Automatic annotation (TrEMBL), chain A:
NCBIfam families: soxB. It comes from Siculibacillus lacustris. Residues 34-78 form the Rhodanese domain. GO terms for biological process: tetrahydrofolate metabolic process. This is Sarcosine oxidase subunit beta. It holds the Pfam family DAO. Belongs to the SoxB family.
From TrEMBL, chain B:
GO terms for molecular function: sarcosine oxidase activity. This is Sarcosine oxidase subunit delta. GO terms for biological process: tetrahydrofolate metabolic process. It comes from the Bacteria. It comes from Siculibacillus lacustris. It holds the Pfam family SoxD.
Length: 417, 102
């Protein structure tokens, strides 16, 4: 059913008790044309685009737990595209353009709110590198503007632009098209739209093996809900990508999984109207519609699958937040948590075919995957449908490491993701 | 925060250490092909389970060492000095499982 003003009104009269389930929960079929491993935003988006744009509707999404229960539900919901390198700019702006109309496309309010991304520059060198960054963005057609400290404070009231803090703010770049979206709604919106087009969403269905034929090509999957035959598998398993691909014989990958933490405060009245990021002193903050301050911390330094990290990492971020917004010093934090992110050495994702015929991968998004949800899903779907990488995804292939064509976004742009 | 067992200084808080990635990655010969170089530089086991990894006690004795840790519980199993042979992780996992069952 479509959501509309009339359907909302009708259900209001029955106290919202009669809404049907938003997606089907079918039993697994013995065979599918394509199976997507991983029921997060990326995987569900890929399934949706396979059905909606590429006409492949006999698709299953297999998910070990429940959909959106991994990194889709653990991020800080920031959406932006102001990366430095041309390949990255094309990739992230492809995604941002889909975000802009996603609620209408899915008929589901993903609460995309382009409230502006303010990236703070601290000191002389930051100002120089951010200026270069800004010009690179504008050459690529991505909106970005320079704000003086006073203009930054006018855009984000409460920001401490004093010269007396440890890392005084020398200015900021602003991407007005960037912002936040509601993480759960993105997952549910893609699940609902994909299910309506015939995609089977199989929850509590953990992959235990990947079957390959004599020619090496994939022939199916073993799962905790039985065997499934398929000729094409798209893996979109974030921090667990190494675990899944090892089942297909790809034991070593250019990935390391680490915890990434975030935390939220008690709900407050509207206080911070945009997204504020500081790479130098490492802080990300925005305010959710519920009023919580949503704060992103950093990664731990070691490989781990524990979905928890050291308290010193969050304490370090809160030090930075308290310096930028001294009036938040007495706000209480309600919850903190960790997600497992898969980091590549160049901090750019891996998207494309693998050496195993029929096996495609979308991974390596590290700490910045949420913003790419619709774009990565679209490009993975296009790549699976064509059997070769989509032009925007082509530079991000697994082969770039041996060719030495790294897309060194972390070092080049000094962006924290 | 982890309690990291330095083989020289004993257990110390993680803040004193820098993690230095997977241990026992063999450097290929200079005339190896680019694939072998990429494997050694960038490709990692990233195991969910027991791993052997390098640490450096930067704000302590300053020395590198190797340690075995479980990546789900984050618990250290052992640490050993550089140059010591790599432990058999599969056998170590079996021993630990048998001990846990007792």
């Amino acid at each position: 059913m479509r959501f509309s003003f009339l359907s909302l009104l009708r259900n209001a009269f029955s106290a919202h008790r009669d809404w049907p389930e938003q997606w089907r929960s079918p039993e697994p079929k013995p065979a599918y044309d394509v199976v997507i491993v991983g029921g997060g935003g990326h995987g569900l988006a890929a399934a949706y685009f396979l059905a909606a744009e590429f006409g492949i509707r006999n698709v299953a999404v297999v998910e070990r737990g429940w959909i959106g229960g991994g990194n889709s539900g653990r991020n800080t919901t920031i959406v932006r595209s102001n990366y430095l390198l041309e390949d990255s700019e094309a990739l992230y702006d492809h995604s941002l353009k889909i975000w802009e109309n996603l609620s209408q496309t899915l008929n589901y309010n993903v609460m995309f709110s382009p409230r502006g991304i303010l990236m703070l520059a601290h000191g002389h060198h930051d100002v120089q590198s951010f200026t270069r960054h800004l010009h690179a963005n504008r050459l690529a057609g991505i909106d970005s503007e320079w704000l003086s400290p006073e203009e930054a404070r006018a855009f984000c009231p409460g920001l401490n632009i004093s010269k007396d803090i440890r890392y005084p703010i020398g200015g900021a770049t602003l991407q007005r098209r960037g912002g936040v979206a509601r993480h759960d709604a993105v997952v549910w919106g893609f699940a609902r739209a994909a299910s309506a087009l015939g995609v089977d969403i199989l929850q509590n269905c953990e992959v235990t093996g990947i079957r390959r034929g004599p020619d090496g090509a994939v022939t199916g999957l073993d799962t905790t809900r039985g065997a499934i035959a398929t000729r094409k598998i798209g893996v979109s398993a974030a921090g667990h990508t190494s675990v899944v691909l090892e089942m297909a014989g790809l034991g070593r990958l250019p990935l390391e999984s680490t915890p990434l933490q975030a935390l939220v405060s008690e709900p407050l009245k509207p206080l911070i109207s945009c997204v504020v990021m500081s790479n130098t002193i490492h802080a990300y903050i925005s305010q959710s519609d519920k009023g919580d301050l949503v704060i992103g911390a950093g990664t731990d330094q070691y490989v781990s699958y524990s979905q928890t990290g050291g308290l010193q990492i969050t304490a370090h971020t809160l030090d930075a937040i308290c310096e930028l917004f001294p009036h938040l010093r007495r706000v209480r934090m309600m919850r903190n948590w960790g997600g497992i992110v898969d980091n590549t050495v160049d901090r750019s994702p891996i998207l494309g075919p693998t050496p195993v015929p029929g096996l495609f991968v979308n991974c390596g998004w590290g700490t910045g995957g949420f913003k790419a949800t619709p774009g990565a899903g679209h490009l993975l779907a296009a790549t699976i449908a064509r059997g070769e990488a989509h032009p925007i995804a082509a530079p991000f292939g697994l082969d770039r490491f041996a060719r030495g064509r790294l897309i060194d976004e972390a070092a080049a742009a000094a962006v924290a993701h | 925060m982890l309690l990291v067992p330095c083989p020289w200084c004993g257990p110390r808080p993680e803040l004193e250490f820098v993690a230095a990635g997977e241990a026992h990655v063999a450097r290929p010969s200079p005339d190896a092909d680019p694939t072998a170089l990429a494997e050694a530089l960038y490709f990692r086991a990233n195991t969910k389970g027991l791993i052997a990894e390098r640490w450096r006690h930067l704000h302590g004795c300053g020395r590198f060492f190797n340690a075995v840790r479980h990546t789900v519980t984050d618990k250290f199993v052992m640490s050993y000095r550089p140059g010591d042979p790599a432990p058999d992780l599969a056998r170590l996992a079996e021993t630990l499982a048998a001990e846990a069952a007792l």
